[in-house]
Design brief:
Elements lengths: L8 E2 H6 L3 H20 L6 H4 L1 H19 L3 H50 L5 E4 L9 E4 L24
Antiparallel strand pairs: 1-3, 2-3
Length: 168
């Protein structure tokens, strides 16, 4: 049975356990991750700040879809009150919010990808991950993990079948 991973430690404690060369490279990677983290402060916790907007646009979408798909005297009144453009805007609101969200957080996704690559290169080989501080005055931490041994992938009888009709 494997031993449990260590408790999280500060970056300085982690670096003190490494050789000078490894510590220098890991410190440079951590500083780069810290700088990258500061570039996405404006989109941090975006989901928590604007959850209500998702709920409102989701309800507008459901209401607009209901008016569009289930004609009745009530939906005729709604269509007459808000007009075709108003109902179309209700139906499109949630989709537009999703597009705007994707556009806004694409920078955060790119930064996360770079941080993941730096972690893979400098921390994962030593069974650790570095998490940069979320706030400007805080410190980062190194979290340890126990690597899992994955089962080998066994090829099944249909894994080597060519694409196309299987009876040829």
């Amino acid at each position: 049975m494997s031993k449990p991973p260590r408790e999280p430690v500060s970056l300085d404690v982690y670096l003190s356990e490494l050789s000078d060369e490894e510590a220098g490279e890991a410190r440079a990677a951590a500083e780069r991750m810290d700088a990258l983290e500061r570039t996405i402060d404006d989109v941090r916790d975006l989901e928590q700040r604007y959850w209500w907007l998702g709920v409102v646009t989701g309800l507008l979408f459901v209401f607009g879809a209901f008016v569009t798909l289930y004609p009745s005297p009530f939906t005729e009144w709604v269509l007459g009150t808000f007009g075709l453009m108003g109902v179309s805007a209700m139906t499109a609101a949630f989709g537009l919010l999703v597009l705007a969200y994707g556009f806004i957080v694409r920078r955060r996704s790119a930064v996360d990808t770079i941080k993941q690559e730096l972690n893979k290169a400098h921390f994962v080989p030593r069974d650790a991950y570095y998490f940069p501080p979320e706030g400007a005055g805080e410190t980062g931490r190194v979290v340890f993990f126990t690597p899992r041994k994955l089962k080998p992938i066994i090829a099944g009888p249909h894994d080597n079948v060519r694409p196309g009709a299987s009876w040829w």
